[in-house]
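In the previous chapter we treated chains in isolation. Here, by contrast, the input contains four separate entities that must be folded as one system, with a combined length of 272 residues.
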Amino acid sequence: MNIEKAWDILKQNGYKETSKRTQILELFSQDDRYLTARDLLNVMQKDYPSMSFDTVYRNLATFVGLGILEETELSGERHFRMQCESDHHHHHFICMDCGKIKEIPVCPMEMAGAALPAYEIASHKFEIYGKCPACK
Amino acid sequence: MNIEKAWDILKQNGYKETSKRTQILELFSQDDRYLTARDLLNVMQKDYPSMSFDTVYRNLATFVGLGILEETELSGERHFRMQCESDHHHHHFICMDCGKIKEIPVCPMEMAGAALPAYEIASHKFEIYGKCPACK
DNA sequence: ATGTAAATCGTAATCATTATGAATTGGAAA
DNA sequence: TTTCCAATTCATAATGATTACGATTTACAT
């Protein structure tokens, strides 16, 4: 996901181009780690002092809803990052030191779905946590 | 996991047998769904009016640490349930209506681990969400 | 340029969780 | 049984993340 594509999606859904949305998208596009709302606010307030909780949270929710950002829960806090470019379904290894991620091409649902006949499957979560080679 | 086994573990680790721990274990052993701390408190205060947040949270943490309860994060809240009996590693389907779970015998780590040479894997999470046959 | 709905600001409210200090309790030992 | 002390619980306050509110500002179509 890049900034231009994100704006295409926002415009198509009737969202306006504002300076704060620009700032948020720029930050995410140049940082490929998972960030919390507070991380985001802290980093942004250095360069753009007027950025409120409301603006951050509201736009994060909008972006996740439109598939621009993806979200996961790590140690009790919501974390966000740019949605992956990959057009094929995949999952993530997440480094608990530096926060960087690595795509895992396999999806366990092919195997597991067969074990659940008569069940209606809505979604699934598969994540691996540990240390990346650089942090080890 | 049954109540006797839970007490064995607690005693072995020097924890005392208190009425509140008894009440908590009884509740979990007769409800196989994931419950939040508040669920637990609400249900328990009907029968045992003197049950505080502190007692609930502290004992939940103790029980999870000892492997008596297992924990997961659903829609931003921590949920708890009795640790499964199964001696082999497995994962869960969770019904988003009734909260009941079904064990899934497969684990994707056998496949995925191979895709991460040089990575140090600490843990992983694989859960499937949807509706069980009864709720569909 | 102007009007208007959308977006943002600054701050307060809410909700889950954790911490604190006083009071109570389990269980061993006298 | 009674006493004692550390473990536990109670009642409540503090914390930290998230959401909500009313006033103000802004994007952008007309």
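Chain A has five helices and five strands. Chain A has a mean pLDDT of 93. Compare these points with the single-chain example from earlier in the chapter.
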